[in-house]
Amino acid sequence: MNAETGSLRAGPDANGHFGQFGGRYVAETLMPLILELEQAYTAAKADPAFHAELDDLLKHYVGRPSPLYFAERLTDELGGAKIYLKRDELNHTGAHKINNCIGQILLARRMGKTRIIAETGAGQHGVATATVAARFGLPCTIYMGARDIERQAPNVFRMKLLGAEVKAVESGSKTLKDAMNEALRDWVTNVHDTFYIIGTAAGPHPYPELVRDFQTVIGKEARAQILEREGRLPDLLVAAIGGGSNAIGLFHPFLDDDGVRIVGIEASGKGLDTHEHAASLAGGRAGVLHGNKTMLLQDEDGQITEAHSISAGLDYPGIGPEHAWLHAIGRVEYQSATDTEALEGFQLLCRTEGIIPALEPSHALAAVARIAPTMGKDQIIIANLCGRGDKDIFTVAAALGVTM
Amino acid sequence: MSGDRLSARFAACAAEGRAALVTFVTAGDPDLETSAEILAALPGAGADVIEIGMPFTDPMADGPAIQRGNLRSLGAGTTLKAVLAMVKAFRQTDDATPIVLMGYFNPILSFGPERFAIEAKAAGIDGCIVVDLPPEEAGELAPALAAHGLHLVRLATPTTDAQRLPAVLSGASGFLYYVAVAGVTGANSAAAADIATAVARLKASTSLPIAVGFGVRTPDQAAAIATHADAVVVGSAIVDAIGAAAEERANDIPARVAAQVGALAQAVRTARYESAGVGAGPEKAA
Description:
Chain A is an alpha/beta fold. Chain A is about 40% helix and about 15% strand.
């Protein structure tokens, strides 16, 4: 919190800390790069031409603003608060990830970088990165865990169609965290020409800040849209959290609005009482990984443990540092939803609204289904529908015992 | 911290007119028992300073060789506590060879920086290199290490320009580790001329000994660096050899490592004479 203004939106501090979280825990080879990126981002923020180009691309290429949709049948079914869905699944590439990728590739171009790398878990960020790399004619390498490549074949093919090279990561647990290790190794080896587009609001400063800033377009639009539709702010915001970029994007513009309750939903996989979950706030403790201090799933010896979620996009043992801080100070309430609850949320939205959500926001929908009935009919919920579910139909079919 | 093992060893090597050989092995690789035997064999084979890797699940600055070493070690159940106990046992028979722990911050943070400093000192450790703890974040560990007389070794790299160097040197102690290539451990080797230039530049800014590592695999490469630097670090080549020996279930891993280190030590110890003999050494030119 900024001591002078009292605002919860002023972070991070000059060294990239949100309270005790955040920071720049990287190898010395990367430090000058991180500092250069910070300078470049500060300059871009102050440059009207940067914003003009970003806004133009968001409108005409991404398709923003995304609608704020009143989910009438879902509201009736749950019998409580009015439920609005922020439709970021309607963006080009089908998820919120593109908001951030557009911003970062414009920064890469300003910095004169000629090669793009990224990590991906479910493949959504990889697809969004490959998309903007194609749009700007830059070569692109995507690191993806070998296990995720097996689970997400359609997205692997999409990335290749878009001209990206997809490198399978065989180290460690062969999932998102290992892909991020490998992307960092590539970056440290190719510092002179390479820009690393990190996919979530985590990593070394200034990534958590800049990814958040590029994603707050979600919350800024939602705020204006609900004021126009209802003439007032919502009572509750809900979003799913892996690294937490869609959630911080929705939450951040509302952090100083005391009357708005904010709830983030972690993936509790097979249950918080098992070791197979991805809830780093509920089941982790403070630690350092991938350039930042945050809440991490780890054993008693400080070794990082594997996360589990039915949603590959939430299958990460950490969380963005700003969420760790918002959790610590209590401004945002963090709950969780299991694989089973997410599947129920998934089917609920398909059935009531004719929208197939991704498994990530299905966790948020599970929480909406739990909370909405406890609220009054004159109250308002905004849930972030951060991705569409086409990519997940094979996973859902398998979970429901359907052979395709 | 004059009078400590690191300062004494670097001074002794300098007095002999040669560079020091620093060898890196991952603690507990391939298992704790073999690792302790390897450790015990290193000084006799010619290692002047020993770097011991603390295994971590996510070694983001390491290449495939040391990644695999970390996994072998963790697979064998190595903990930070066990690493400290191994060094303590080593100190029963060798109280002179400096030992520097190298690793990532999270296991230390989890152990508790203060408790780590106390127990590391008690075990006979001389310093630490924490790869992902740049000067900007060192405040959580540096005071505890300093309070207990442990060096926090800093890293300079090819990206450390004149603007960055003062931050790296501020609070540096023990020696300065020059990472010769922008990349991960075990990567390609830097050109000898580039290393000579970099070492000269660093020496103009610090009186600390300069150790050069990353991409140094063979006796010839080690010798080339030993003509310029105060110390040469060899890691991945040794860890690779341990991995290959473990793969074939060899029962003479410590002896094999000793032979490899012996060849490296021989090359490092004679490098400046050889270099002076053919008239190409920087000392002669200077």
